[in-house]
Amino acid sequence: MKSHMTIDRFRIWLAVILLGVLTLGTIWVMEVIRRNANDEQNRSSARSAPDYYVEKFNFIRLSNNGKANYHITGDSLVHLPRTDNIEIKHPQINSFDQDRPPLHLRADLAVVSQKSSLVTPRREHDEVHLHDHVSMERPEGLSSQFVRVESDYLLLLPDDDIVKTDKPILITTGKAVSTATGMIANNSTQHLSMLSKVHIQLKKREAAPKADSK
User: Fold this and answer.
1) Within a 13 Å sphere around the CA of 61, how many CA atoms are in the beta-carbon half?
2) What is the per-residue pLDDT across 166-198, written as a single tens digit (0 to 9) for each?
3) Distance between CA 51 and CA 91 in Å, rounded?
4) Among 40, 101, 172, 206, which is most buried by a count of CB atoms within 10 Å?
5) Cβ–Cβ < 8 Å for 109, 131
């Protein structure tokens, strides 16, 4: 009888020990998963946080031929390592080149996608995405007329000297006010194309003052 009780107790304690080991193993696995999740979250947070920023900056972008052709200023600039993008608050972009008419661009926000082989898909060219209260002006010159373009979004391609959008735009010149959806403007050739839903309203010419009769 004592031997039978001893065997039963042994079985009970063995079951308790196995249950304890299983519980401890489960707790350990859960702790490893939690730590890995926290580490991944911390790494993700670190990647999404800016790794550097500049306030009240002036930046000159050099073209491929070595000429300084874009002067960029803004209230602040931050670099986001996760996307390798640069965000600029209240950017002002001025182009200058001896062979091309100047352009002046303003917006509430610019997102610069730099040419890079480290991101997927690979970026072959720099892109400047201008968002919110965007305006582009080209002053009147010897071979060009005044043009102002307003929109919620414009895309500047600095290497090609092209500005384009697929959003609604308002274009003001010395002779007309136009609205459209979509635009491609090539500053090198001074050619501007409105893509769809084009409406043009010509400005009335002011009457010449009459000469006083005596």
Assistant:
1) 21
2) 999 999 998 899 999 999 998 878 888 999 999
3) 20
4) 101
5) yes
Peptide bond into 121 cis (omega under 30): yes
The answer to whether the predicted template modeling score (pTM) of the entire model surpasses 0.85 is no
Asked whether 53 and 76 are in contact (CB, 8 A), the reply is yes
Burial 147-160 (b: 16+ CB within 10 A, else e): bebbbeebbbebee
Residue 158 DSSP SS3: coil
Question: For 102, how many CA atoms within 13 A lie in the half-sphere containing its CB?
Answer: 12
CB 123 within 8 A of CB 116: yes
For 111-131, what is each residue's pLDDT tens digit?
998 877 766 777 788 899 999
Q: Please tell me which residue, 97 or 183, carries the higher pLDDT value.
A: 183
Strand partners, 80: 85
Size (the chain), residues: 214
Q: Residue 91: what residue type?
A: P
